[in-house]
Every structure is written in structure tokens, then in C-alpha cells.
Amino acid sequence: MRSLRFRLPAFFLVGVVLAGIVTAVITIRLFQDYTESQTTGDLRRQARELGALFAEQAVQSVDEGTAPPRLVVPRLERATGTRLYYVGVGLFPGDISGLRRLTREEAGLERLPQSTTTIEFVPPGEDGSYLAIAEPVELLGETFGALVVAKPRAELRERWPVLLWRAGLAFLGGLIVAGLLSLYLSRRVTKPLLSLSRAADEVAGGRYDVEIEPVRSGDEIGHLSERFGQMTKRLFEANERERQFLMTVSHELRTPLTAIRGHVDALREGLAADPEARDASLEVIESETDRLARLVQDLLDLAKLDANRFALVEEEVDLERLLEQAYQTFAEEAKRREIHYGQEVGAAPVIVTDGDRVLQIVSNLLVNAFEWTPDGGEITLAVDAGNGRLAVSVSDSGPGIPAAEQERIFRPFWSRNGQGTGLGLAIASELAQALGGRIELESEPGAGSCFTLVLPRRR
């Protein structure tokens, strides 16, 4: 009963039944009005013709002094399906023309009608009401009576069962068609939803590599299926990144910790007794400690950015001096690896932003460039200012990045070569957005890459 496969057809059929009932009520009411209007028109036409005939024969009788005219009333009633009455003054002795006599009170008339009038009355000795037309009968310009042509309302109601029977058959046929259609639509709607429900159960159980049955439709269900498939794909990738991250971080932590512990043991046991060996061990300990500190700081920065709890300051920043500082940091490494390392900075503007974070972004971009540029390659740091913004670009002659990977490299814990934590570009991208800017990437496999930090002059 709670299943959508049951409730959808049930609600649909209930709606069809309610619509059918409303339609039937309206149809019956319209049929009543139509039947009464049509009957009234027929009665009006018959009353006009019979009244003219009766008046003509009455005048002829008076002029010729003959017996009053006698219409063949039973035959007329059978031919027309009506009842004929007369209301008014008796101009002739005896029963006037063989018509049934009615008083004005019995006919529901206050006075003799001067024009064709629609009335409703109950004849003496009968229970059912009659719908009738009273047609005035004139003699020498004076109205002396009225011919009443009436039809029992019961005859009008006799047509309703036929209408109801036919309407019921049509409604039953429509209900069957609607039921089949609702079953088809219910199956069409619920089948992909059931597939999504089963997939959601698997995802809730921690299985993200689920197969989503494709839905060939452009409606909301197709959109939901497509988005759900993208979501499970992202969850699977996130789970893989998390697993890779744990492996990477454990490796990154274990390597410096192993080196630190080895040199500490050597110092404790007196293996590094001479000053040079001791100083070398201390330098290694210091270097590996800095490496651990950077890793921990990167993790803290990423966590703060994700939680929107990252504090930024606004200050005037001399961009030329900041980029010179970032450039000189990697100058020695460029010489050691014989990398053609250049800068195209010139006169850079003073901007209002968080200088430390800009320096962190540019440094991360340079670290990435030196990581992927082979010895003897080329790296260039440049800046371009204009139109209320500035762009700091870092280009390299590395292997380039395929189009399929250009979006993923900015995700945390994702590394192209499986080395490193994969946090540098992710943090740089998040920081750029926090500063009101963005990082753009232009790259082709085999043609190097160019990362551009685009910032407004004022955040």
C-alpha cells in the first residue's frame, strides 16, 4: 500500500473517477437543460399551430351559426405525444371542442395569457407535474381562452437512464484505458526509481562502484539518474583519493620520521662523534622537521578552507617585491638543474589583498612547475595588469596535462604520478577563490603548461 507503484496508479484512478463523477453531474445537468429547452420549443410550436386552428374554427362556427368545432383530440395527442387542455370562457354550449377543461387556478395562471406563456402545473386527479405552453385564443380581437399543450415531466426524466447508461459505458471504457495508462506510466516512473533506490542502498553500505541503469529520457527522472551516477562516481573517486591520501600521508610522515629517528639514535649512541657528522645529522633532523611542519600546515590550511574558517587580512601589497621574493626562492634549484628560469615582472602594481596568501599561491605554482619540468627545461614567472585585475602566470616546459585530468589536478589528495600529497594545487585554488580570484590553466600534452593566478586589484 505504501509502494509508489501502487499509490501512483491509485491516485491517478481516483482522480479519473472524481473527474468522471463531476463530468457526469455536469453532463446530466446540461442534458436536463437541453431536453427542457427542446421540449419547450416543440410545445411552443404545437401550441401556436393548434391555437391558430382552434381560433379559426371557432370564428367560422360563430359566423355560420354551426355547432362548435370538435378537434380530434385523442388523435392529436397520440400524434404529438402531448396532452391538450383549454382554459377560459366557454363560448359554446357543452364541452368546447372536446378539449379537457382547466380553471386558471388549476393551470397556475393568474389571468388569461396575452401571449405565449410557459407554465408548469399538476392536472386534477394526477400526481406528476406537466411542463406546458399556454397559447392565447382570440375571437374578434379579444382573448377568450388559452390552448394548453402539456407534456409530463416524467417523460423527460425517462431519457436520463439512456444517457446514464451510455455515459456509464463510456466512463467504464475510459477507466480501463486510464488504468492501463496509469500502470504503464507507473512502471515507467518507478522502474528507474527502484534502480536508484537499490543503488542508494549499496552506496549507503559503502559500495560506491555501483552500476546505474541508464534512463533514456530528458525528464526529471533522467536528470536525477544522471546526477546520481555522477555523485556515485565522485564518491568512488573521493574514496579512492582518501585511501591514496592515507597511504601517501603515512609514507610522507614515515620517511622523515624514520630519518629523524635514525639520526637521533646515531647521536645518542655516539656514532656521530665528530663535529661534522653531528652537524650533518642535525641539519637532516632540521630539514625533515621542516618537511613535517609543511605537511601538517598544508593539512590544517585545507581543513580551514573546507570549513570556511580561514582568516584573511587586507593590506597594501607591493606585487613586484612579492614576486621577486617568490622568484629568488627557487633560483638555486634552477641553477642546480640547469633550468632556464626567467621572470617578466617589470613594474607590478600595488594591490590590496593578503600578501602572505598570494605568496603561498605563487610558491605552490612554482613548486608544481619545478616538480614537472625536466632538467634543462624552462620556467617563466610573469605578470600582466589591466582592466582592474592582474594575472600572475607560471609557465613550464613540462609534459603537459591531458584535458581529462585538468580539472582533477585541483582536487585534494590527487596526484598524477602517485607521489606527494596532492595538496599544493588544491590549496592554491581554494586560496585564490577566497581572495576573490581564480586559477586558470592552459596546457597541451607535450607542450608544457601555464598556470595563471587571476586576482582583482582590491578583494
Structural class: alpha+beta
For the record, give the distance between the C-alpha atoms at the N and C termini, rounded to a whole number. 58 Å
Runs in which pLDDT lies below 50 for 5 or more consecutive residues are none
Rg (CA only): 50 Å
Strand content: 15-25%
Number of strands: 12
CATH class of the largest domain: Alpha Beta
Number of domains: 3
CATH architecture of the largest domain: 2-Layer Sandwich
From the spread of the alpha carbons, the general shape counts as rod-shaped
**Approximate helicity band:** 40-55%
- The string of secondary-structure elements, in order, is HHEEHEEEHHHHEHHEEHEEHEE
Total DSSP helices: 11
Give average pLDDT, whole number: 78
CATH fold name of the largest domain:
Beta-Lactamase
Strand line-up across the major sheet: 2-1-5-4-3
Largest sheet: 5 strands, mixed
Give a topology summary:
Elements: H1 4-64, H2 73-80, E1 83-88, E2 100-102, H3 104-107, E3 117-121, E4 130-139, E5 142-152, H4 153-157, H5 159-204, H6 220-268, H7 275-306, E6 315-318, H8 319-329, H9 331-336, E7 340-344, E8 350-353, H10 355-372, E9 378-386, E10 389-396, H11 424-434, E11 438-443, E12 449-456
Parallel strand pairs: 1-2, 7-9
Antiparallel strand pairs: 1-5, 3-4, 4-5, 6-8, 9-10, 10-12, 11-12
Helix pairs in contact: 1-5, 5-6, 6-7, 7-11, 8-10, 10-11
